[in-house]
Design goal:
Chain lengths: 426, 184
């Protein structure tokens, strides 16, 4: 069931000019939720409220943020950290940069509330290195927040101390994976860690750490302001809240739009984004970044952007970075480019991923160039089976899913390009 | 002739500030490499040794970091580096046409540098500007969005006369469109 989105006013990036300036943010109830939390709430109450609101992680996994916070052990007097994930490298995803640009203080406020809830000493904001301009914006916002006493020692006279630092990445998709991000923050090559131990037990510098997406933390002040029940009433029941949809590809008006979860994909394409370029038909939609399985254009009726609806349709919410492709798109070429990406970005620790991504790309190049055989399609699927779930992190799965589901769902495109090599036994 | 590299007083003061953000001595390596690359234009092995000495960590560790992350220039590049995105959405919207146009215009292939040392081209993976495809980034800095061959030409010509394109603020669509929410 689609939600009422036409009367929705953006909450994460409301229509207020110059909201990125701290004076403007303060004038519009900015940092009031932080003041309320510091004065009236206990850390446990904040965790319970956020858990009840069911803010599902906006970075891809969709895990209840409050539940994640509750995994942090009891404080023992030694440092504890939050790593805020703004690596945003999944192809099709370009939403967190809108928060850095248009409403950075909402994120800072949310991260500080999260810090109070988990007895955190420092928040490291990890932003991909390519976002130089947005790193500077975020740094400016943090400096302003320090100057006004919203960060640093004795925040707003509460006795709570917390620091916030920006850490710039330097070009590595894998650093969006939480344990790889921590390795990168520790000044190492971004190799994902074996879990367990989980970050809440042993994270940054061996200390308890929680990793949350930028957008997830930006939702926190909304929950504190209006309560968990209000928040749960927005969008889809099992996956509530406002979400930043990053829509790109063959639509007339691509861009980032803020609407409730649970919007129908057809509404997003035809109403929000002004339809397809040249009035063409939709061939495929990737709903949440390139690692989520693509949906066929002729099977979009009734499919909505929330975890349950997309699972039923055979895909995932991911980062809500939607890529829309029209009827002229060559799926073999598209799949090759996706595989090239994962081959390039595999960190090389695990053999199934390091070699598997290479084999996938090589096989797809063969098919793309017209030298493929029918049995190569089975080989691709077999390779996927041998990669999925056999590696330290989920990059191998992220590389295998698009291959598995593009080959099965758009099989006719592939069959047209390969030689039929199924022979009868003599 | 072998060039020598060193940090001046201001750099060292900046490095002390960076070190204060992290609890151990290995962690500041990435921001310090960024600082070095901004100053020297690259982080060749001689610079890596300087960073290692300054932070008192093994040079092999610094090399490991430089070679893992694509944005660190372990070897010299042109004065301006065009990072042309060709990943999925940019591919769909003509990223390869932009790349090939730039290659023909400058007479080099992706991964190469022009003879005069002015321009390098790199074909890179998703830069997170998918709604504004095709796009490219200039020397780890400014994003150039919604490229056409004409726009590429004017950017290249501008750079030749020393004019770096400015940061393009892309308005949030819902802030622009008054009609949107009242429709229907």
């Amino acid at each position: 069931m689609a939600v009422d989105w036409r009367n929705f006013e953006p909450l994460l990036i409301p229509k207020i000019p110059n909201l990125h300036k701290i004076e403007v943010f303060e004038k519009h109830d900015g940092y009031k939720q932080l003041a309320k939390v510091l004065k009236e709430y206990t850390p446990e109450k904040v965790v319970d409220e956020v858990k009840a609101a069911n803010i599902r992680g906006r970075g891809g996994a969709g895990f209840n943020a409050g539940l994640k916070w509750s995994f942090m052990p009891k404080p023992d007097g030694k440092p504890r950290y939050i790593a805020a994930n703004g690596d945003e490298s999944e192809p099709g995803t370009f939403k967190d940069r809108q928060i850095f640009e248009y409403n950075p203080h909402l994120f800072i406020e949310g991260a500080t509330i999260a810090g109070f809830a988990m007895h955190i000493d420092a928040v490291y904001v990890y932003i991909r290195g390519e976002y130089k301009a947005w790193i500077d914006m975020m740094q400016k916002a943090i400096d302003d927040a320090y100057a006004k006493g919203y960060l640093g020692k004795n925040i707003m006279g509460s006795g709570y101390d917390m620091d916030m630092y920006v850490h710039s990445g330097a070009g590595a998709y894998i650093c969006g994976e939480e344990s790889s991000l921590m390795e990168s923050l520790e000044g190492k090559r971004g190799y994902p860690r074996v879990k367990p131990p989980f970050p809440a037990q042993k994270g940054l510098w061996g200390r308890p750490t929680t990793i949350n997406n930028i957008e997830t933390l930006a939702n926190v002040p909304l929950v504190i302001k209006n309560g968990a029940d209000w928040y749960k009433a927005i969008g889809a029941e099992s996956h509530p809240g406002p979400v930043l949809y990053g829509i790109s590809g063959h639509v007339n008006k691509p861009g980032v739009y803020e609407y409730p979860t649970g919007m129908s994909i057809n509404d997003l394409i035809y109403e929000v984004c002004g339809g397809m370029r040249g009035g063409k038909k939709v061939k495929a939609v990737i709903p949440g970044g390139s690692s989520t399985p693509p949906l066929r254009g002729d099977a979009l009726e009734g499919v909505c952007m929330d975890a349950d609806s997309l699972r039923t349709a055979g895909s995932m919410m991911g980062t809500a970075g939607m890529i829309i492709m029209d009827e002229d798109t060559d799926m073999v070429d598209v799949l090759w480019r996706i595989s090239h990406f994962y081959h390039h970005e595999s960190c090389g620790q695990c053999t199934p991923c390091r070699d598997g991504t290479g084999f996938l790309e090589k096989t797809l190049i063969k098919i793309r160039d017209g030298h493929g055989e029918m049995r190569d399609l089975d080989l691709l699927l077999d390779l996927c089976t041998q990669m999925e779930g056999r590696t330290i992190c989920a990059l191998a799965d992220a590389a295998a899913w698009p291959v598995r589901y593009t080959v099965t769902r758009f099989r006719e495109d592939f069959e047209k390009r390969v030689k039929n090599t199924v022979y009868a036994l003599a | 002739m072998k060039e020598t590299y060193e940090f001046n007083k201001e750099d060292l003061a900046e490095i002390e500030k960076i070190k204060a953000k992290y609890p151990d001595k290995k962690s500041p390596v990435m921001p310090v490499l960024w600082l070095a690359q901004e100053k020297f234009g690259h982080v060749e092995p001689a610079v890596q040794h300087l960073v290692a000495e300054t932070l008192d960590i093994p040079a092999a560790h610094v090399y490991g970091v430089v070679s893992f992350y694509t944005q660190y220039y372990g070897e010299r590049k042109g004065k301006f580096v065009f990072d042309v995105c060709t990943t999925l959405t940019c591919q769909l919207c003509g990223g390869y046409d932009i790349l090939h146009h730039l290659e023909n215009k400058l007479g080099i292939k992706a991964g190469e540098t022009t003879e005069d040392g002015m321009f390098s081209i790199q074909s890179v993976e998703c830069l997170g500007a998918c709604g504004y495809a095709p796009m490219m980034q200039i020397t780890n800095g400014v994003y150039c969005n919604n490229l056409t061959t004409e726009k590429v030409d004017s950017i290249v010509d501008g750079l030749k006369s020393g004019k770096m394109p400015e940061f393009e603020q892309i308005p949030f669509p819902q802030h622009q469109d008054e009609q949107k929410n009242s429709e229907g």
